[in-house]
Amino acid sequence: MAKRIRWAGVAMLLCFAALFVQLNNIQVVKAHRYATAPGNPRTTDTVRVDPRGVIEAADGTVLAESVPAPAGNAYGYRYQRRYPQGGLYQDVVGYDSPRYGMTGVEAAYNGYLVAHNAPVKTIGDLFTTRVETDTVTLTVEPALQKAAATALGTRTGAVVALDPSNGDVLAMYSNPSFDPNPLAVLDPATEAKAYAAGNAGSPGGPNFPPLENLAYADSFAPGSTFKIVTTSAAYEHTPQYVTKPYKVYTCMPPGTIQGQTVPLCNYANEPCGGDIAQLLPPSCDTGYSLLAQDIGAQNMYDEATAFGFDQQPPIDLPPSPFAVSTFKPPSFYQHALIFLSYAAIGQKNTSGTPLQMAMVAAAIADNGTIMTPHVMKVIRDAQGNVVARYTPKVWKQPDSPATAAAINGLMQQVVSAPNGTAHYVGFNPADHVAAKTGTAQVGPNNALTTNWMIAFAPADHPTIAVAAVVPNLPGGATGASSAGPVVKAMITAALGQ
């Protein structure tokens, strides 16, 4: 009998232990998951009765907050969302609309922003239910965000600035922009009007709707900024061609490359040729077109994907199919190798988002490493305790440190050499800028240009990497003349020169 009692006692102790473990699992380990689960009735109810958490910039500037709602509003909400900075941060923060849902950080970090049961931290918490919201602090620096908006002005375009050492998104801005406040008011007619206007395109300009995020969810022909990827492919896969001299051309005549039916000319028909060190500063299209043939389609594709092309970028914002930059697979080029040449100079079938091209610059700046881009810096609860903090992590390693160092030097020549395409942008020599311009011919009869610049500074210990694009400009616009001043403004704001 005593033996049976002992076994029964052991069984009861094991049951109590299992109960204790499961209680901790539910009340502590999985508390946040359950508290913010869509099926939780408390989550549904709290939207109507509780405020959301604050979203703030890196310096504490409030970007989104909840304020008391008008009595008798159509949704019966006690609070509504307010965006004190208007449209300046909409590319990152997004909006929270009762009618149209959430975008940006509002959506990505909704589980922290929505009122939820506080996690159990003390024995007393087991017997009470505390409701709280968290504050999401972003990596975005207001001085750089404002510099991007000011530099773009009324022009359609986008700017992304990263800290290459850790992936912090220092700025992300696109124009046309929009004020998210009308989308957050608790009046269906006002919301509908604002949403329709936000999807109508920019007045008098290219059809880029304000609600479309040009910075990370739209892509453009990257032009000669893609030559950084092509140069990397040569160094990484076919180093024997790095020092090969290529014939001097103003225009390559039809038939020079398989499938070529029209001349392929350098910008303004300028003559250029030589090895990579001579080709990159003046951005020699003919030389890079021939270099691409030597590198080969498979090596070009492998290097492009190593930089993140043809993949969803890992940024902590809602994913979008339009966020994927593209480079065609080798089979695409087998019947017309001329398209490989165009791809290698960022034309025709190659596309890149501003975020992707900022990561290309950041890779060279950070010894060949692409850190995962992110907008969340830290999340704190109502008492100021850290709930989550971003830990930097590597996403890609497209280049060796030796390759990155070599290309870094070439990009400095783009700025400092008299024949460098960024030589006359007017960068402060003290900023020690490394850059690459891009001018992609687009539109009917190539009558328009999409204009780029990517850059980082200071070149010997980079703290900022930038990509700027100003698409679909007529006439003689170039990357240096259109995007160059934007990048210059960003670097000046970052370095304080």
Write a concise keyword list for the protein shown above:
alpha+beta, 497 residues, 19% strand
How does this structure look, described?
- The protein is of the alpha+beta class.
- It has a domain at 223-375 and 394-495: 3-Layer(aba) Sandwich (Beta-lactamase), CATH 3.40.710.
- Helices cover 34% and strands 19% of the residues.
- It contains 17 helices and 21 strands.
- The strands form seven sheets. It has a six-stranded mixed beta sheet with strand order 3-2-1-8-16-17, with no helix packed on it. It has a five-stranded antiparallel beta sheet with strand order 10-9-21-20-19. A two-stranded antiparallel sheet has the order 4-5.
- The protein is globular and about 95 Å long.
- The N and C termini lie far apart (87 Å).
